[in-house]
Design brief:
By secondary structure, the chain is an alpha+beta fold. It is built from nine helices and 20 strands. This is Hydantoinase B/oxoprolinase domain-containing protein.
């Protein structure tokens, strides 16, 4: 038997380790994307690679990270003092800019790891055909950047400079990449230190016991929530605007079968994997399903692998929700993930309408900018996701200008942008009247204008520029987004996914979608 007080104590102890790892990573990183936007996630895993605890970071990183940890365990024999690096989307990753660092924790003379600590951070460039490594033109993963299988980045406590050299030789901002990776390694080091202190204080067996009990507890809570959903089959489908290469909409379809305390989530009927970069790997789809069902729990239940035990997932091989090699996947993690969430929530709205919000903006509005900064005499790369409107809820309006669902980052402060990059923010405001109307209105999106002080390459990966975020219970749809190039005083509408070369004085305006409305 477990002690419920001890269970809560260990829940907070494990979570505190992950949060402290995040603080170390944030404070010691070099890139604005990590230190300002906090585009990273940290988590703790048991000896099997199952997630025990996580910090309150990015949903799209967290559930998928367990698959990376398991791939690292399978591929590399790790000893005390070793650390593994990987970013391969087809080995538990999400897309190439998300680099994962996995470190085993051995207690004293044990031959097998007791736990693993891991973190994942989005690097603003990992090579590929466009600065920022987020090109809409990529049709295979080889064009998207350097692909890192699970390999040792640290061996017996010494950083492997050969691996670092291979990575930095393939990116546009090598110094920034190297020191961001070192920051990630440092975050795991503090995680190991805190685990050692925990095992010394409470005893290894007690720590292991409660890491398992927490997963069992989350499983019980999730099953109790599922039992309250009426048994039945519920389906929903929605579309991405296109794949960035052709103009054909990309369908995401889900069927959800509720039976007692179990759920089967089936994505049969979704589009086959496409030529462009919106393909999502299986790890991304798992993260989306994990996120949606975790949202159904009102209480502050630990978010760990136990939350998914009652949920089975069918994502057909070779589909846009389970793409296979060598598909381009850079946008699957950031755009397709949002639409997967939309369709799963849409299906559940038919079963439990009083608990499900209307669709949020449905896009991360990615912008990657790169070029040569003459004032500093060096290349630069910049990456950001831009917030939108939250969908209206059954009892209140949606929030304005906020990151929703699979993203949980901050904005990059205007001061940080203008201090570090050769462009400036000409306008940054809430986008008026962009939320869908209803008894409760959808949240408004954002307008963010970038004015360029020199030539640069700009890649935009966005969506909901053709299809609107849906309303529920007769609520109106949210307003679609727009991407606009203003050059020499003339406005040019840009597609949802595009790469353009801009000149000095040009402006790129990103107008993000609003959320759907709820009720009449």
């Amino acid at each position: 038997m477990f002690n419920p007080i001890s269970l809560e104590i260990f829940n907070n102890l494990f979570s505190a380790i992950c949060e402290e790892m995040g603080v170390v990573l944030c404070k010691s990183s070099f890139s604005t994307n990590i230190k300002e936007r906090r585009d990273f996630s940290c988590a703790l895993f048991d000896g099997r690679g199952e997630m025990v605890a996580q910090a309150e970071h990015l949903p799209v990183h967290l559930a998928s990270m367990s698959l990376s940890v398991k791939e690292a365990i399978k591929a590399v024999e790790m000893r005390d003092g070793d650390t593994v690096i990987l970013n391969d989307p087809f080995q538990g990753g999400t897309h190439l800019p998300d680099i994962t660092i996995v470190t085993p924790f051995f207690y004293k003379a044990m031959k097998k790891p007791v736990f693993y600590v891991a973190n994942r951070a989005h690097h603003s460039d990992v090579g590929g055909m466009s600065p920022g490594s987020m090109s809409n033109n990529a049709t295979e993963i080889y064009q998207e950047g350097v692909r890192i299988p699970p390999v040792k980045i640290v061996q017996a406590g010494i950083i492997n400079k050969d691996v670092i050299s291979i990575i930095t030789a393939n990116v546009r901002t090598p110094e920034e990449r190297e020191w961001d990776i070192v920051a990630q390694i440092s975050a795991n080091t503090i995680g190991k230190q805190r685990l050692l202190e925990l095992c010394d204080k409470y005893g290894k067996n007690e720590v292991i016991k409660y890491s398992a009990e927490l997963q069992d507890y989350s499983d019980r809570i999730m099953r109790s929530v599922i039992r309250k959903i009426p048994d039945g089959k519920y389906s929903f489908s929605d579309f991405l605007d296109d794949d960035g290469i052709t103009g054909t909409p990309v369908r995401i379809k889900v069927g959800i079968n509720i039976k007692g305390s179990r759920v089967h989530v089936d994505f049969s009927g979704s589009s086959k994997q496409v030529k462009g970069c919106v393909n999502a790997v299986y790890a991304v789809t798992v993260s989306c399903v994990f996120y949606v069902f975790r949202c159904l729990i009102n209480s502050d239940v630990p978010a760990n692998s136990g939350c998914l035990r009652a949920v089975s997932i069918n994502a057909p091989d070779g589909s846009v929700v389970n793409a296979t090699m060598p598909s381009a996947v850079s946008s699957g993690n950031v755009e397709t993930s949002q639409r997967i969430v939309d369709v799963v929530f849409g299906a559940l709205s038919k079963a439990i309408p009083s608990k499900i919000p209307a669709a949020s903006s449905g896009t991360m509005n990615n912008i990657a900018i790169g070029g040569y900064d003459k004032s500093r005499g060096q290349s630069f790369t910049y990456y950001e996701t831009i917030a939108g409107g939250m969908g209206a809820r059954p009892d209140r309006n949606g929030l304005d200008a906020i990151h929703t669902h699979m993203t949980n980052t901050l904005n990059t402060p205007v001061e940080a942008i203008e201090h570090n990059y050769p462009f400036r923010i000409k306008r940054y405001q809430v986008r008026p009247q962009s939320g869908g109307m209803g008894k409760f209105r959808g949240g408004y999106g954002i307008i963010r204008d970038f004015e360029f002080l020199d030539t640069a390459s700009v890649s935009i990966l966005s969506d909901r520029r053709k299809s609107s975020p849906y309303g529920l219970r007769s609520g109106k749809k949210g307003r679609v987004g727009k991407n606009i190039l203003i050059s020499k005083g003339k406005k040019h509408n840009l597609p949802s996914k595009t790469t353009v070369n801009v000149k000095k004085g040009d402006v790129i305006s990103i107008c993000t979608p609003g959320g759907g409305g709820y009720g009449r």
